[in-house]
Design a protein that fits this description.
Elements lengths: L3 E8 L1 H14 L3 E7 L5 E8 L1 H17 L3 E7 L4 H7 L66
Antiparallel strand pairs: 1-3, 1-4, 2-3
Length: 154
């Protein structure tokens, strides 16, 4: 699918950022950049995407800029020629996020009677103290907890 190029020129950087935000929320587009033009504080917003998305985004951004009395120009080039898109817009590749290495888990040798049901070495039954040695089961009175008299002590 060929990409489409959309250009929206507005007066002021704050309005350009607001328009870019509205355009990105209105359609599935890629914001290529904001470029300050020569004179009068005008800023060009460059977007790419499929034809319908770029047209929807430009019309949404233009209507916001027109409401704020800051619309200068708008243009959608539906399917630009081979050299136009590559020379007028330089798309920065997205940085590759480094994956966080997984923490190696300690291997425990637990002998089980059935291979389907893995047994945990320490099963926590008390939801108050989280001590595996506590005989209290969830739902039983708090007085059965090993640490019931030690509440609030450091």
């Amino acid at each position: 699918m060929k990409q489409s190029l959309g250009l929206l020129e507005v007066s002021g950087l704050a309005l350009a950022i607001s328009c870019a935000d509205v355009m990105a929320k209105a359609a599935s587009i890629t914001l290529v950049g904001l470029e300050k033009t020569n004179g009068s504080g005008w800023t060009v917003i460059k977007i790419i995407g499929d034809v319908a998305s770029v047209q929807a985004a430009i019309s949404t951004g233009a209507s916001l800029a027109d409401q704020k009395n800051g619309l200068v120009a708008q243009k959608v080039i539906s399917r630009p020629g081979e050299g136009i898109l590559s020379h007028s817009v330089t798309v920065q590749p997205e940085p590759v996020s480094e994956s966080i290495p997984a923490v190696p888990q300690e291997e425990t040798s637990v002998e089980s009677s059935s291979p389907e049901a893995p047994q945990h070495a320490e099963l926590i039954s008390c939801n108050l103290c989280l001590d595996p040695a506590c005989p209290r089961q969830k739902g039983e009175p708090r007085s059965l907890c090993l640490h019931s008299g030690k509440r609030g002590e450091a």
